[in-house]
Structure formats: C-alpha cells, structure tokens
Design brief:
Length: 170
C-alpha cells in the first residue's frame, strides 16, 4: 500500500484538495482510502445512542454495523495520539492511502500552502514534503510548486511520484 500525505496549516485547504482529488484518482482506477488526523478530541456518536453508552460503560472497542457501513471505535485510555504506522495496521489494503494531517510523520507529502494565512512554509523544515501546492506563485523552493486549483496536475504528480499502478492492472 502506497502512502501519500496532504500537509499544511489549518485553513489551508487540505480537505478541499482531498475531496476533489479522490474522485480523480478513483476514476483512474485506483483504490483509495484516507486517514485524517484531528488536533482536537472528537466523537462520532452522541449521548443517548447505544454505542455511546457502551463506551461510557467502559468498553475498549465498540463496533457499529448497518446495511451500508460499519465503524470501529477504539478508546485510547492514555490520551496519546497513535503513530500513523500503527493506525495503518487497521486499514484494509488499497492502492493508495492518502493521509490528511500527520504533518510531521515521515511519508511523502504535498504541502498545501496559502500565503494569505500568514503561516510559514513547512517544506524547508520537512524533507518529506516532495512538492507544494499554492494559490500564489512561490519562488526559491527546492521542490516543485503546483497550482492549488490544478487537481489533475496534483493527481498526475502523485501517480508519478509513487509510480502508482491500479491494482486491477497488476
């Protein structure tokens, strides 16, 4: 399973790139999954729901299943983020796993950068950033700079950078 990340500061547009990139890669024949890092605590169920009550009562894991999806929630009692490699062990094999966030993990990444946010580039301090996508021209970088609005070009870059081939072609 090949891994590629979208990294950048909050508000840079990582999710927008992700939701535009996914259909393009899938249309090209790749099986794609995603993992998203949240910098805050989150919950996918709510008080009053049975799954919530199971967790509140102390279950380490709770699986919810229906006709159209299933979800497994695992409680982290030590309140520590798991490393990406450990989380990936729970993912089914696909051609490409796109990671949103986890900006300091050591996998190849595209930095999403908007100078208007006033945040510094991550790329100079992260050798795993192999390109930057921006809504403005950027100069003097050691990596390719792609137009943020060019989803086809971003998809081409990822496919080429990872030498991706759809699993049905193998």
């Amino acid at each position: 399973m090949k891994v590629f990340g979208l990294a950048g500061w909050s508000g840079s547009g990582k999710t927008t790139v992700m939701v535009n990139l996914l259909p393009e890669l899938i249309q090209r024949g790749f099986s794609v999954s995603t993992v998203k890092h949240a910098h805050h605590k989150f919950d996918i169920d709510r008080p009053g729901k049975d799954s919530y009550e199971h967790r509140r009562a102390g279950a380490t894991e709770v699986m919810i299943s229906s006709i159209n999806r299933w979800a497994l929630m695992h409680e982290l009692s030590d309140n520590n983020d798991l490393p990406l490699t450990e989380l990936m062990e729970h993912m089914s094999p696909v051609d490409l796993l796109i990671v949103e966030g986890f900006k300091w993990e050591p996998h190849p990444k595209l930095e999403i950068h908007r100078p208007s946010l006033g945040k510094p580039l991550l790329q100079p301090d992260d050798r795993n950033i192999v390109a930057v996508a921006s809504d403005k021209k950027l100069h003097s970088l050691d990596v390719p700079v792609l137009p943020l609005s060019n989803i086809l070009g971003i998809a081409d870059f990822i496919v080429d950078a990872l030498s991706l081939k759809p699993s049905c072609a193998e």
